[in-house]
## 1
Amino acid sequence: MTVELVEMLGDLDPHLRDDLALTVLLRWIAAGVYDDLLPAMGDGISEGLRPGLGEDGTPSVLRRSFSARVLAAVIDRDNVLHGMHREAVLRWGDRGLSWLVAERDLRGHVPGAGRAHALAHAADLLRALARSRHLQAEGLGVLLDTLADRLLRPTTHSFSGLEADQLGFAAMTLLHRDAVDTVTVQGWIHRLAAGWAGTWTQTGPVPAQVANTVAFTRALHLQLLLGVRRGRGGREQAALEGPPAARVEVLATLQAVLRTSGPHFEPSRPIPGTR
């Protein structure tokens, strides 16, 4: 049954792929059905990130995207059980991050097949990795770098849904770990801002990757300013209680760079809550 469900993750029928295969696999993983098989489950699911990678506009994105969502659930299960060896989780993370940077098909929906949501499912994977005890300062820094690589990579696909918010929430999960030093986070933010430098003085349409990077940075700023919650309680909610330790410094950096993210901002004015 599991083999058939995994194969359905790439099915063109949204009922089979989304309503049946994805729903059942996520439910069974969370319920512990695969607890004794998590190593094999993670290895097998992560193989689904590879078929057709590099294609754009083909149905192959469905298998890759939905495999990423299930892989996130496998890692999340280990975040509860604390039973997986570090090497396995890092192997899955390496496959997932390699897929994220190389994925070209960022469509929200595939005509006739329903949602694809590669970036939304990538956000789930990043969030699960950000919570993993196997990733400390260096590994979390790699997550930030990979996210920047993805956002800054040229693309023709603009965000079409809540991708900015979902990726922002993944970054917030990482910031709440308080494991990456403030200078590194600030440098990462400045790298994002360099991606839109000079855009507003040019003629022609704004490149999709620039608009996406600005949208993400604004979403991250708003989430850091207002605070976030998971909504389901439990371990993850506890991990998000209270602001990150570097909230004030990171907000100030976000404020500074966002003033360059459009032509209509005043050069400087403090944000409430940053003092």
## 2
Amino acid sequence: MTAKWAAKQGARVLVIEKRQEIGSPVRCGEGMSKDWLPEVGIKPGKWINLEVEGARIFAPNETVFEINEKSAGNEVGYVVERDGFDKALAIDAANAGAEFLLKTAAVGVLKDGGQVLGARVKQFGEPFEIRAKVTIAADGFESQVGRWAGLSTNIPTRDMDSCLQYRMTNVDCDTRYCDFYLGKVAPGGYVWIFPKDEGLANVGIGVQLSKITGMAEARKYLDDWIAKHPAYAKGKKIDMVGGGVSISPPVKQSAADGIMIVGDAARMIDPLTGGGIANGCIAGKICGTVAAESVHAGDFSKTFLDKYDRGWRARLEEKLYRNWLAKEKLCTLSDEIFNKLVDALSTVHLQKLSVHNILKAVRDKHPEITQEFAEFL
């Protein structure tokens, strides 16, 4: 997205991709909202598997609360083929004028004093340098480029989820909804079901890393959940992906002299839902636009590039921090409180899902748990 918008506005753009194929391997639940697509110039395409009506939130006792897709957050609207989506973005960027260098890994940054001047890379084992007026780090959850440039991207384990997902066939999934299961079945996170087609779904889990010892434990939680749900226990696993997801506040600084960081690398994933596609693309457009402006102005200073920092924060930061605070609270709740919370929500029809409306529903149905949410009042 950043490459597309920088190229559209006249900058010469080179995208460095460490793998031989854009979009692979997939590390994504493959659910995303859709209202933001026109804002960044994306047209729905063949990468869409399903359009869903909304989400269902299941309490530990499996009381269910249904919400429409507009209120459901960053992961509900479309279920997609993420590799196909990423390839579509790459085609858009290439058509706008961006060039791609595949099977090429960044191994360091070039600096003169505090100014980033490009990257040191390797392709097929051969090292070389790429010089650039502006370097953009879009290297995901495990980002190193920002750190090499002196930008802090470290986060504590309580702000990370360990995630694992199976693609399963021969399951009984409802293609109208994305489903989410809360409570101790997934400590500090949730189990998700994203339907891909009739009988085919992504079944995954995110568990707060501070609550487990590693990926094997996350897998055990998911396998245990599947074993207890006959609609999925009878299914067959045909694919498995895993990795880490940040559930933290965004980085405190996303620009420095000659460099900007964007997307997962800048901790722009929604801390409550774990969804990052929309935020990454929205920030990517701002980043690409500012990159092109800096090239045309001949100014690559932090002072100039901070226009990007101000831009994405104005658009995204308030919700990211609000949802991080909500995540912090939800991670402390017992199954009993989750049951009462979802019970309260399931008995009212909310036109808009907001903290105020949720707390009103809780006060009306289960006033005895209102003190659990005192800091949000």
